[in-house]
């Protein structure tokens, strides 16, 4: 497996680019890349030339997270002011503005069926679930406080939720916290199941394997990527190699590889059969905040694509094969 | 049967004396000789016979009787015989003097020898008195002089004889001997030849002389012939045999040696007391390892010879024998004895070398040095000697001299791998590149020579590559050194291992189950002792590659086999510490301490961990223990204690100035102590700089930091982010914001991959002070993104936005755009503060809800005002445009209308202004009072803020310093071990520490913010009181009250930022601005 640099858009944003995801293709257009930046804008890009499709404004403070509905029709973006803006991808018409004070908003993800948007709720130590039909808050999955801790105990800020991930069939949801623990929930029953231990530093990104609903990948500030059996509560493997925080992780659509972006300015491709980094891309000049594989399907999408975004204001696009 | 006949006096009869049946008592014969007045030649014959039979006493008795005064008188006419008797006696004493030997102490020996020579001289003189010209007397005298070593005089004695009779054989031989001793071998050879011509039947000794001369002249074949001839004449001629044997031995060929040794043996059998033969035999047996024989032979040789060089040789043999047996004391004594027998080192240099070796072994470097230098004088190119000298200089600490010798040795013998290995070892500490070259050369040589390259050499090469950051090469070399083994399985078949071990135990760095499973699975988990170090280094390298998982497995396999390998525990602890798993890290360090409870590195590390765990008292004790374990010589422990004190000074939330001063003083003392021990300790210097900065000596501390920074940038292994930050703090404190910003940014990029929210906070603060509001805001947003759970950052961002808005609104001229963005910013600020306010219910952060609400209120209010301003600005904009267009046409009408409007507005404004002025006055009073309060509380209000900043700065720097301290210590501790390890340790620790720092600083920051918050609250409370008073007294309209409140809360905000210095001034300024505004703008402002 291999990554080949296709295109790099320098100064794609006026400031650091903090989030990226692919909007799946629809019947009348291919998949688009959605990026969010500290410059308070959200931009849509057309592969493979990274032509700017549109600029969405309306956010205050930096855009920290973007998410696309599996249908490719709608998408959501969230900023440091804790508003989530849901919009129509093709028209940029606002559909809803979500907030659940005092909870902040960090990573977001639509569930695979597209009925629910999960939002990492930061200091509220919970994940907020929004119904995508009514845009009402339907559930708040809270991480239970450790036993014996008082509500005033400062340590609960350690459960600050940063990242969320849906498993491929949508029954499980995992969220990662500042203290490095990962919590797994049964979505249907809105019930906390168990913690996954192993990291002791913030887990900023999580992704389930698209081919195995038990396998969860996590990236942490401790420079490691972990591979868990999320059902069996066990750590299957630990991959080291980055020299600084691992900020983002994504799994390839075929499930044989993962890509990571790190503060060490590199993007790495990991072969899961070897559990080792097989390629390191170092074309970014600052922290790489997001990596995202383009989902399969859609017209005119030949071959896999990986996008990475960085503090250096640029977007890079790679062919994945 | 030989007989002599003594004529009986006065008769024809004779007494027949059978020479082989001489009576035991010589007196019997003497009686006969005297009674019969036998001719003196008979006396001589009989005496000589006694001598031949070894009956020395009898011989002497007869001759002494024969030379007594009576005889002289009686035989006065018989001159020749009398002379002969005297000469015989002289020769006898000469002989005695020459042989004077053994078993007696040297002094006695010497004295007796002298006595013998004196006796001999007396006899010869007596003979001379009888006849001065008698040649045999001269010959005897010559021999005597030779024996006494007075070669020149002996030569002249022989010359006297030879002048008279140039064919006098004894004189010729004597002269030949004299010439030989004078080193004139060809002259000597000529004399021997002449003696042989004159007297062809002369004994083998002459041919021996010829042989020796030829030998000395290098004519070995002729020499051999001569010796062989001598041997033919006298098969028992030991000297000839020995000489031939030596000639056989010297070419150093196996067959020759065998033949030579056979001859030696024969010579020994013939005459067991030939020292030369004994020495050579001993030499032989030394090489065959029969030390017992060596000792016996040499002792005999020593007993039988008096000849210095030979004795020296014997002692040397003996010394060598003991040396090889490892008895250095004895061998030293014998080498010494051997050396004493030598006049000039160049005669026989080997014992000097041996002595040098033994002294080296016994640690007497100076003596060894002088001995080796003697050897070197004679053999200036002797590699071994050069190497030995190199080693000695290392021991004496003169590394450069040592290198000189080693390099010379390497140059001379470019094929000696050992030299290069040694050279490499020497250079390691001073010149890694050269050391690496030397080791590589050694490796190449060994490989060429088909030798297996020792693991140590490969390890050193690997380590040096490591140090030079040639990691790939280092890995190759380590793998080569390791060869085949379990580690290959561990490194390559990761997948299998994880499959076996699909439990959460991987992260438990203490887990050994993996290896047991491997063993059960049929793998043999073996780790030869000599590969442990290499494996450790490889693991360190893997850590460098960030392959910490593989590294941890290797460390664990080391521990699995060698549970006492403390450093492996510490590395594992460091890995888990880097991953912030403090609990595990502490456990691992405790494992290490179980092995050795006083291991300073482990103790220091434990102290660090405890500090990280906020276990202050324990940490201090641990550092103390670490310090004690090294008798206070461990700079790391001392530095840690210094840092501890520094933290302690700043930590207390309720600052107790006394305590603070004490702690600072103590910290300074500790740093100074380290600096005295290690003048170049960067961390101590940094610490001292921080303390100085803390006390306000910014210039001095800046100098220190700059120097430390320069020094630190020289090494790839020293990464002192702290000093950059400290320097930036100093720039900041001195108001040089641009430089401070640059410094913070560089530091962040260089050392932290831009991931340190704390430094971003410093940066934001600098922007804040520089009134670069937007930069400040952006920086804070980045910080929030990095550290999402740090709510203080959000608060600060809110304050920055609020401040930005306020400052824009205060501007006398502003565009509509500016005002619009101000409005947007204010909305954001309101949003941020409201969120915080809502969050405070959940205790997400430590802010006071009331205070936040105050901010919310203020911002909202400002927002309202801003909106008005915005509308006004927009209107004005529009109006301006319109005005420009319509100016000419409707000038007059416009004018009139405007005048009317202005009039109206003026009245309105005037009222407003009055209110404003009242408010301002009141505000000023309030502030005066507040200021008073501040002054009285701890220090002057304005000043007060600044120290706080500094402290805060100090705080981080401090931490940093501490880290640095750690690094330092690491260096030290590991130095004793393997170099790479050490470096590696250092690096790792640093990392760990950095993390730790970041965390701690955050804490501190929090604390400080809290503290600041408290202050602010106090102020607010005070201000509030004033407010109410004012309201009561003056009954100002409510709007004015609100405004006042705004102003107050604004000052409040400023406080909230980690370190706003000029709050008071700012607010004063604002107030004044407000004052001025109405005057200036009276006409325009609200005009439309």
Topology:
The complex is a heterodimer of chains A (321) and B (1088).
Chain A (H helix, E strand, L loop, with lengths): L2 E7 L7 E7 L8 E6 L4 E5 L4 E6 L6 E6 L5 E6 L4 E5 L5 E5 L9 E3 L5 E5 L5 E6 L5 E6 L18 E6 L5 E6 L4 E5 L4 E6 L6 E6 L6 E6 L3 E6 L4 E7 L5 E6 L5 E6 L4 E5 L4 E6 L6 E6 L10 E7 L4 E6 L1
Chain B lengths: L2 E5 L6 E5 L7 H11 L3 H13 L3 H11 L2 H6 L4 H21 L6 H25 L4 H14 L2 H14 L4 H13 L3 H14 L5 H13 L3 H14 L4 H12 L4 H17 L4 H14 L2 H14 L3 H18 L2 H13 L9 H13 L2 H14 L4 H13 L3 H14 L4 H11 L4 H17 L6 H13 L3 H12 L3 H7 L1 H7 L12 H8 L11 H13 L3 H14 L4 H13 L3 H14 L4 H13 L3 H14 L5 H17 L5 H21 L4 H13 L3 H15 L8 H13 L3 H16 L4 H13 L3 H14 L4 H20 L5 H26 L7 H38 L4 H47 L3 H35 L3 H56 L3 H19 L6 H19 L7
Antiparallel strand pairs in B: 1-2
Helix pairs in contact in B: 1-3, 2-3, 2-5, 3-5, 5-6, 5-7, 6-7, 7-8, 7-9, 8-9, 9-10, 10-11, 11-12, 12-13, 13-14, 14-15, 15-16, 15-17, 16-17, 17-18, 17-19, 18-19, 19-20, 20-21, 21-22, 22-23, 23-24, 24-25, 25-26, 25-30, 25-49, 26-30, 30-31, 30-49, 31-32, 32-33, 32-49, 33-34, 34-35, 34-48, ...
């Amino acid at each position: 497996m291999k990554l080949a640099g296709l295109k790099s858009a320098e100064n794609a944003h006026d400031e650091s680019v903090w989030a990226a995801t692919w909007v799946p293709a629809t019947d009348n257009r291919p998949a688009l890349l959605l990026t969010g930046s500290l410059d308070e804008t959200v931009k849509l890009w057309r592969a493979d030339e990274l032509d700017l499709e549109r600029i969405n404004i309306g956010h205050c403070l930096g855009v920290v997270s973007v998410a696309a509905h599996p249908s490719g029709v709608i998408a959501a973006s969230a900023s440091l002011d804790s508003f989530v803006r849901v919009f129509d991808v093709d028209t940029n018409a606002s559909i809803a503005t979500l907030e659940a004070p005092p909870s902040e908003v960090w990573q977001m993800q639509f569930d695979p069926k597209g009925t629910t948007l999960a939002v990492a709720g930061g200091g509220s130590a919970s994940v907020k679930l929004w119904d995508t039909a009514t845009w009402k808050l339907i559930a708040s999955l809270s991480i239970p406080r450790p036993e014996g801790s008082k509500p005033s105990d400062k340590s609960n800020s350690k459960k600050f939720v940063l990242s969320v991930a849906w498993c491929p069939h949508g029954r499980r949801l995992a969220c990662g916290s500042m203290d490095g623990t990962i919590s797994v929930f049964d979505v249907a029953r809105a019930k906390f199941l168990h913690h996954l231990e192993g990291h002791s530093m913030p887990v900023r990104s999580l992704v389930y394997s698209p081919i195995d609903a038990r396998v969860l990948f996590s990236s942490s500030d401790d420079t490691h990527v972990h591979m868990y059996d999320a059902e069996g509560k066990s750590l299957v493997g630990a991959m080291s190699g980055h020299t600084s925080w691992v900020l983002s992780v994504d799994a390839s659509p075929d499930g044989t590889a993962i890509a990571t972006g790190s503060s060490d300015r590199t993007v790495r491709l990991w072969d899961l059969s070897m559990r080792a980094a097989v390629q390191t891309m170092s074309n970014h000049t600052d922290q790489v905040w997001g990596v995202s594989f383009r989902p399969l399907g859609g017209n005119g999408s030949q071959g896999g694509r990986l996008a990475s975004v960085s503090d250096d204001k640029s977007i890079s696009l790679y062919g994945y094969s | 049967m030989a007989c002599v006949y003594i004529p009986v006096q006065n008769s024809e009869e004779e007494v027949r004396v059978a020479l082989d049946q001489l009576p035991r008592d010589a007196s019997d014969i003497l009686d006969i000789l005297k009674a019969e007045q036998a001719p003196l030649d008979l006396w001589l014959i009989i005496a000589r016979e006694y001598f031949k039979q070894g009956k020395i006493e009898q011989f002497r008795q007869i001759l002494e009787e024969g030379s007594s005064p009576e005889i002289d008188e009686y035989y006065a006419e018989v001159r020749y015989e009398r002379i002969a008797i005297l000469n015989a006696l002289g020769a006898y004493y000469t002989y005695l003097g020459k042989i004077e030997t053994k078993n007696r102490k040297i002094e006695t020996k010497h004295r007796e020898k002298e006595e013998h020579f004196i006796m001999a001289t007396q006899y010869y003189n007596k003979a001379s008195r009888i006849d001065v010209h008698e040649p045999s007397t001269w010959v005897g005298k010559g021999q005597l002089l030779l024996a006494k070593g007075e070669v020149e005089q002996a030569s002249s004695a022989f010359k006297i004889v030879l002048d008279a009779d140039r064919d006098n054989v004894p004189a010729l031989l004597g002269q030949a001997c004299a010439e030989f001793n004078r080193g004139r071998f060809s002259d000597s050879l000529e004399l021997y030849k002449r003696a042989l011509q004159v007297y062809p039947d002369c004994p083998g000794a002459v041919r021996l002389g010829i042989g020796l001369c030829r030998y000395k002249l290098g004519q070995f074949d002729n020499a051999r012939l001569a010796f062989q001839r001598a041997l033919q004449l006298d098969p028992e001629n030991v000297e000839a045999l020995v000489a031939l044997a030596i000639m056989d031995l010297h070419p150093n060929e196996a067959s020759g040696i065998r033949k030579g040794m056979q001859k030696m043996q024969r010579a020994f059998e013939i005459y067991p007391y030939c020292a030369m033969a004994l020495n050579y035999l001993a030499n032989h047996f030394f090489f065959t390892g029969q030390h017992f024989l060596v000792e016996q032979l040499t002792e005999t040789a020593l007993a039988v010879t008096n000849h210095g060089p030979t004795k020296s040789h014997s002692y040397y043999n003996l010394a060598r024998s003991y040396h090889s047996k490892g008895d250095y004391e004895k061998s030293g004594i014998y080498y010494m004895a051997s050396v004493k027998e030598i006049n000039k080192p160049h005669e026989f240099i080997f014992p000097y070398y041996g002595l040098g070796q033994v002294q080296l072994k016994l640690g007497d470097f100076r003596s060894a040095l002088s001995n080796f230098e003697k050897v070197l004088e004679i053999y200036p190119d002797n590699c071994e000697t050069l190497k030995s000298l190199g080693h000695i200089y290392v021991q004496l600490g003169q590394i450069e001299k040592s290198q000189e010798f080693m390099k010379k040795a390497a140059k001379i013998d470019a094929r000696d791998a050992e030299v290069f290995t040694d050279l490499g070892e020497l250079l390691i500490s001073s010149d890694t590149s050269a050391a690496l070259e030397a080791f590589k050369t050694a490796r190449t040589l060994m490989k060429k020579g088909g030798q297996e390259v020792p693991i140590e050499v490969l390890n050193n090469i690997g380590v040096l590559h490591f140090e030079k950051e040639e990691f790939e090469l280092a890995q190759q070399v380590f793998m080569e050194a390791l060869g085949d083994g379990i580690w290959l399985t561990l490194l390559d078949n990761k997948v299998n291992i994880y499959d076996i071990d699909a439990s959460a135990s991987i992260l438990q760095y203490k887990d050994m189950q993996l290896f047991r499973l491997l063993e059960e699975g049929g793998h043999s988990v073996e780790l030869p002792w000599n590969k442990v170090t290499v494996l450790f280094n490889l693991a360190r390298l893997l850590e460098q590659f960030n392959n910490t998982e593989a590294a941890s497995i290797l460390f664990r396999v080391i521990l699995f086999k060698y549970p006492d390998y403390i450093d492996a525990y510490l590395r594992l602890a460091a890995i888990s510490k880097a991953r912030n798993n403090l609990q595990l890290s502490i456990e691992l360090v405790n494992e290490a301490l179980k092995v050795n409870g006083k291991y300073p590195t482990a103790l220091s590390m434990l102290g660090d961990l405890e500090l990280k765990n906020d276990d202050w008292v324990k940490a201090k004790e641990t550092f103390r223990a670490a310090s004690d374990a090294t008798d206070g010589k461990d700079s790391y422990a001392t530095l840690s204690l210094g840092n501890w004190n520094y933290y302690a000074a700043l930590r207390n939330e309720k600052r107790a100035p006394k305590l603070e001063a004490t702690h600072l003083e103590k910290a300074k003392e500790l740093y100074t102590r380290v600096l005295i021990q290690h003048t170049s300790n960067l961390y101590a210097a940094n610490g001292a700089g921080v303390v100085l900065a803390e006390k306000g000596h910014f210039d001095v501390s800046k100098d220190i930091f700059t120097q430390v920074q320069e020094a630190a940038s020289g090494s790839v292994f020293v990464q002192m982010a702290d000093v950059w930050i400290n320097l930036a703090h100093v720039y900041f404190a001195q108001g040089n914001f641009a430089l401070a910003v640059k410094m913070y940014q560089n530091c962040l990029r260089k050392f932290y991959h831009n991931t340190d929210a704390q430094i971003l906070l410093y940066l934001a603060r600098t922007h804040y002070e520089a009134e670069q509001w937007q930069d400040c805001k952006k920086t804070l947003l980045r910080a929030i993104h990095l550290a999402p759970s740090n709510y203080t950052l959000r608060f600060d961002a809110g304050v920055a936005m609020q401040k930005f808005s306020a400052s824009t609104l205060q501007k006398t001229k502003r565009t509509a755009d500016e005002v619009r963005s101000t409005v947007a910013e204010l909305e954001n600020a309101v949003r941020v503060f409201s969120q915080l306010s809502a969050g405070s219910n959940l205790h997400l952060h430590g802010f006071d809800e009331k205070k936040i609400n105050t901010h919310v209120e203020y911002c909202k209010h400002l927002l309202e005002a801003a909106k008005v301003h915005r509308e006004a600005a927009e209107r004005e904009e529009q109006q301006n445009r319109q005005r420009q267009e319509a100016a000419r046409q409707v000038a007059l009408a416009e004018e009139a209308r405007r005048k009317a409007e202005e009039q109206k507005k003026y009245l309105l404004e005037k009222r407003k202004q009055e209110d404003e002025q009242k408010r301002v006055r009141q505000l000023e009073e309030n502030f005066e009072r507040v200021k008073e309060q501040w002054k009285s509380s701890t220090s002057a209000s304005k000043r007060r803020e600044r120290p706080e900043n500094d402290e805060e700065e100090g705080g981080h720097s401090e931490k940093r310093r501490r880290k640095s301290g750690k690094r330092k210590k690491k260096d030290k501790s590991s130095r004793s071990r393997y170099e790479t390890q050490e470096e590696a340790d250092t690096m790792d620790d640093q990392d760990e520490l950095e993390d730790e720092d970041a965390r701690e600083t955050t804490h501190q920051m929090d604390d400080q913010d809290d503290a600041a918050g408290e202050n602010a609250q106090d102020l607010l409370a005070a201000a509030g009181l004033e407010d109410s008073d004012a309201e009561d007294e003056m009954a100002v309209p409510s709007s004015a009250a609100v405004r006042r409140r705004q102003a107050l809360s604004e000052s409040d905000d400023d406080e909230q930022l980690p370190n706003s210095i000029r709050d008071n001034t700012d607010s004063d300024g604002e107030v004044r601005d407000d004052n001025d505004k109405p005057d200036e703008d009276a006409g325009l402002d609200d005009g439309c």
